[in-house]
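Exam prep: given the inputs below (a chain plus flavin mononucleotide), describe the expected output before reading on.
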Amino acid sequence: MGRNMLKSGRAALKGYVSDQNRGVPMPEVQVPQGGERIPLPPSTENGIGLRRAIESRESRRSFLPEPLTAGELAWLIRCVAGVRRTLRRRDTGTITLRTVPSAGARHPLETLVAVLDVDGAAPGLYRYMPLEDSLAGTGRTPSREEVVEACLGQAFCGSASAVFIWTAIPYRTEWRYGPASPKLIAMDAGHACQNLYLAAEAVGAGTCAVGAYDQKLADAMCGLDGEEEFVIYMAPVGKIIAAGS
Ligand SMILES: Cc1cc2nc3c(=O)[nH]c(=O)nc-3n(C[C@H](O)[C@H](O)[C@H](O)COP(=O)(O)O)c2cc1C
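Solution:
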């Protein structure tokens, strides 16, 4: 049943020599990606209190046909992957501390966003570049139909304004934690998605975690190799409260 993956994994680390122990350089914090950059605009949100955001959070599967604004999208992205501080360490090189926790600050997750209908952002698939706080175009423009197909026919996924797609670059975590990594990476993803749930409440929007997706279709939609980087979680976001109400 794969249950062992849920256990601490520390036993597997007994005597294990990680790439970090071996002196292999730390993998890069940010995917080297050429091409045009779109700096994120200032974040926009409605100042909802944390208590209200937590108490009203629920999985939303019905969205208004209304776009998010670029400022709202920027808020959401920063809440799931934004960098609070960078630290330069002699033993590792640059590491990031973000708005979400990550085991050993390895941050194996990449945040890709399929923009379907966002005011001030052209439709397309973008990769968040955390060190630059910008979006990099991927040259892909997934259609609503492709998104639904990748999400195993879950129609609501195609009615969103934007779809958050978390991918994992497992080696970032494996470099230190080796065989104990899968659990740690999965837990990291949960933190990011919960932040998205709460942050969405602060822009009159909602989201729903999507763990039911077709691995091959999702990876192909994002142009990923499926080995060194692959999709692990998705979350369509859309407005649930009309602007001005
Ligand atoms: C890991 C995970 C995967 C999920 N995958 C899906 C999914 O593929 N489709 C869906 O409609 N909801 C999905 N959900 C949402 C759950 O169904 C939802 O959280 C649950 O019914 C409780 O409802 P609530 O979030 O409104 O409290 C997922 C939730 C989690 C945490």
